[in-house]
């Protein structure tokens, strides 16, 4: 019920503003909304930094090859105002990230939704976070 | 163009709504045994916390002048200058300025490089007005973590000011409106993500009016004979963020984006 209420409030706010909110660069200049990625892996590093918080995960493919991905979140201020803390992601946590990959082919993505180690799916860039569908 | 953008923005909002509903449904499925689960780690909801924009009359200082102080959001262009135009108006770009704009690449946007927005561009981060009898300060949280100062002591602009990112600003009251006149800009900042340009001839006149407790309108005239064939007006609205405080935001700390940004300047 509470989740429904949150969604309703969020939707009303979005519809009321009806203007996408960006950060310090245009989303489409760096990421490709058509290159949707879902990545599951272990957190290796968390940068609680500006202009974007970032975290890195090791993703293992079916052949056992490990690739380290660089994942962009909103700025720490936006995250904190949305209930995150710098400890929401910890090194070694297994997480799943849904996002958009970088246009230039780098192992880099803008995270839209993160499923944390405890199973909660949380928004990662709803406001000021360059999410393409905000 | 403007209509088109508004349409796109509306469509994006609808998409966001659908996405939120889908996310919520999935979340409810996965958190059946976790009542109170929400869309952020602390359960504060998916949007920025804080009460809605308050209503009520605009406050006044003891001397009767309007009190503009507080933490605000918005009040200038972010992605596209055209969003501030009145219906049917267009931006009177000179051919040479159009050429500059068309050649601009997103990676070169000063804002993406952690440099100031200039005026009238606003970053999508909160900012605060501090009002004193002699100065008014605009303190910006984000991009960049800087400030503007407006001289309220009746002084004139210098004869030949050194060009700067925020220029030389003098302010005066016209009734309930704070009028800020600014010259002495450099030509480095962009007006928006689209790369609308200007020259050092830029002269801005901002008219800030607090319409009510939670709303402040900025009607700004852009006068730059170096880039535009005539002065033109834009209107933007700032919203109060009650209970909010500015937070540190040092953009230069870890700006990896600029190495990956591609393509011509444009809105997302």
Strand order of the largest sheet of chain B: 1-2-3-4-5-6-7-8-9
Biggest sheet strand order of chain A reads 1-2-3-5-4
The helix tally of chain A amounts to: 3
Share of residues in strands of chain B: 15-25%
Give me the Rg of chain A, rounded.
15 Å
Which sheet architecture does the biggest sheet of chain A show? 5 strands, mixed, barrel
**What letter string, H or E per element, gives the SSE order of chain A?**
HHEEEHEEE
* CATH top-level class of chain A: Mainly Beta
CATH topology of chain A: OB fold (Dihydrolipoamide Acetyltransferase, E2P)
Mean pLDDT of chain B: 84
Q: Identify the biggest protein-protein contact and residues per side.
A: A-B, 63 and 71 residues
Portion of residues in beta strands of chain A equals 35-45%
Domain tally of chain B = 2
Q: Order of SSEs of chain B, N→C?
A: HEHEEEEEEEE
Principal-axes shape call of chain A: globular
